[in-house]
């Protein structure tokens, strides 16, 4: 077999292993998925009327805020899901299985790539669940074209891959699962400091740069534009640029750390 075929075979094996772990121990995934679902229900049913009036003007109903918040919650869902990836990688590194893999004739990168592909699949599934909850409470995307739907799906997958590679690096540098969870916490906090819940222009002037110059805000604005059929502007290029940059950075960081870490 060629080197590429061996790498693909080993990556498939590692992916199957990670998916089996996720199926046998679903509590972590469910706990992480619960955060965006609860935030969605809280903001829509408790703050929805007030937020709709603030965004859509007097007379706007709750549906205005549902349309605004769902795209941001979809990306927050990805951020929550990849926390579990950091914990899973840290567990592998500290429980000795990686040391066993190092002695076997398997492709080195397949261990990390298996984690990444498995995490992206879980992220997409989590996004579908949260999206279904959004649709159930009133979210509609009737103005989006088929091409915009495909672009939205591509952005979600690309952004998920970007955050996953960063999460893998965080898991590799963490001495235990608790530390990995703490290290990956910015994946959940950054969406809350973005345009996910309120427009950036309504934020205080001193805080606005924090929301503007981070990866989640352009990704959220791009996804919002694609799903609602509105203008995206320069956010599309920024979202893709952030995603590709984070993929490259995370891949280099994770592979370098995995190559030198003897745990």
What does it look like?
It is a single chain. It is built from twelve helices and no strands. The chain is mostly helical and 263 residues long. It starts with a helix and ends with a helix.
Protein traits:
mainly alpha, single chain, 12 helices, about 260 residues
Number of strands: 0
Q: What global shape is seen?
A: elongated
- Which structural class should the secondary elements be placed in? mainly alpha
Give the mean pLDDT: 86
Brief overview, please?
The protein is mostly helical and 263 residues long. It contains 12 helices and no strands. The model has no long low-confidence stretch (mean pLDDT 86).
Helices, strands, pairings?
Elements: H1 3-24, H2 27-45, H3 48-56, H4 62-94, H5 97-102, H6 108-136, H7 146-173, H8 177-183, H9 186-192, H10 208-212, H11 216-228, H12 235-260
């Amino acid at each position: 077999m060629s080197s590429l075929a061996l790498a693909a075979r080993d990556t498939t094996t590692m992916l199957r292993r990670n998916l089996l772990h996720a199926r046998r121990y679903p509590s972590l995934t469910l706990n992480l998925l619960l955060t965006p679902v609860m935030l969605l229900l809280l903001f829509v049913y408790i703050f929805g009327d007030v937020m709709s009036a603030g965004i859509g003007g007097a007379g706007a109903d709750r549906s205005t805020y549902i349309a605004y918040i769902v795209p941001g919650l979809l990306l927050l869902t990805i951020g929550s899901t990849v926390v579990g990836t950091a914990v899973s990688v840290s567990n592998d590194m500290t429980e000795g299985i990686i040391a066993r893999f190092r002695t076997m004739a398997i492709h080195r990168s397949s261990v990390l790539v298996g984690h990444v592909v498995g995490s992206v699949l879980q992220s997409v599934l989590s996004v579908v669940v949260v999206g279904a909850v959004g649709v159930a409470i009133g979210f509609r995307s009737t103005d989006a074209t088929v091409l915009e739907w495909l672009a939205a799906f591509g952005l979600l997958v690309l952004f998920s891959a970007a955050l996953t590679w960063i999460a893998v690096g965080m898991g590799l540098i963490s001495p235990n699962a608790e530390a990995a969870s703490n290290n990956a916490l910015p994946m959940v906090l950054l969406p809350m400091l973005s345009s996910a819940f309120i427009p950036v222009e309504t934020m205080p002037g001193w805080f606005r740069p924090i929301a503007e110059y981070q990866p989640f805000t352009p990704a959220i604005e791009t996804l919002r534009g694609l799903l609602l059929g509105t203008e995206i502007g320069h956010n599309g290029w920024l979202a893709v640029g952030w995603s590709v940059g984070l993929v490259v950075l995370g891949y280099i960081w994770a592979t370098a750390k995995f190559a030198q870490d003897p745990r």
